[in-house]
Write a structure and sequence with these properties.
- The chain is α+β, with helices and mostly antiparallel strands and about 260 residues long.
- It has five helices and 16 strands.
- It folds into two domains: about 110 residues, Probable inorganic polyphosphate/atp-NAD kinase, domain 1 (Rossmann fold), CATH 3.40.50; about 130 residues, Tumour Suppressor Smad4, CATH 2.60.200.30.
- About 15% of the residues lie in helices and about 40% in strands.
């Protein structure tokens, strides 16, 4: 990358991120995201996901710096040698999930998820769900608090906390993970090829309402949710070579 590359700085509302924003804009100037070569996100993982959802369609690489509570998708924050770090950064290409949710009212709502799509019960009543893979029913009824489909990049987040597997970056695999399953007792989820179409149907949605969430975009009172890996959309995150995303995901599997 050129040493004269144009940067667009994006910052979360936190005081730390706003202070860093002022310092970095004073050093490097500020460009609109549409005119920039690289987007620089200042905050935590939540802000990174917001930035990807807002600007991912631009196709610009994103270099994040941690100025929040969680920074798995971020680099360490340093204000010096930013252009040198970006020029030496290693890319990680992420392909999001596409969710299409059908609601009780007949609406069809689409959204993208870079981490996971999760279905959760809305009341005290457990969710009753059926699961189809590529049009074939694989599980007639899953009784649970919820279920999710996670990408490799998202497999260390909510998926892992629900006892799902950590997936290597670039593995072309997604995780299907139940959340507090009650029946079947021994079902613990599945690993699926990334191009698998996953369809959840809500059994008795009026008595047992369910919501679907793609990253942070929630759709309530769903009756059917279809999830597939996007064939057209990708985003590129940039990481310092000594702490790239592939290494982070690998290291997470050896944390004791």
């Amino acid at each position: 990358m050129s040493s004269t590359q144009r940067l667009a700085f994006l910052a979360s509302p936190s005081p730390e991120a706003q202070t860093a924003l002022g310092e970095l804009v004073a050093q490097h100037g500020q460009h609109e995201p549409e005119a920039a070569d690289v987007l620089v996100a200042l905050g935590g993982d939540g802000f990174m996901l917001q930035s990807l959802h807002r600007y991912g369609a631009l196709g610009k690489p994103v270099f994040g710096m941690k100025l929040g509570s969680v920074g798995f998708l971020m680099n360490h924050h340093r204000s010096d040698e930013l252009l040198t770090r970006i020029a030496a950064a290693e890319p990680a290409v992420l392909r999001p999930l596409e969710m299409v949710a059908q609601t009780e009212s007949g609406a069809s709502v689409g959204s993208l998820a870079y981490n996971e799509v999760s279905l959760l019960r809305q009341t005290r009543q457990a969710a009753h769900l059926s699961i189809d893979l590529n049009g074939q029913t694989r599980l007639d009824e899953l009784i649970c608090d919820g279920v999710m489909v996670a990408t490799p990049a998202g497999s260390t987040a909510y998926n892992f906390s629900a006892h799902g597997p950590i997936l290597p970056l670039g593995s072309r695999v997604i995780a299907l993970t139940p959340i507090a399953p009650f029946r079947p007792r021994r079902w613990r989820g599945a690993l699926l090829k990334a191009d698998t179409e996953v369809r959840f149907r809500v059994v008795d949605p009026y008595k047992r309402p369910v919501s679907a969430t793609a990253d942070s975009h929630e759709v309530r009172d769903v009756v059917e949710v279809t999830i597939r890996e996007s064939q057209e959309r990708t985003v590129t995150l940039l990481f310092d070579p000594e702490h790239n995303l592939e290494e982070r995901i690998l290291s997470e599997q050896f944390v004791t």
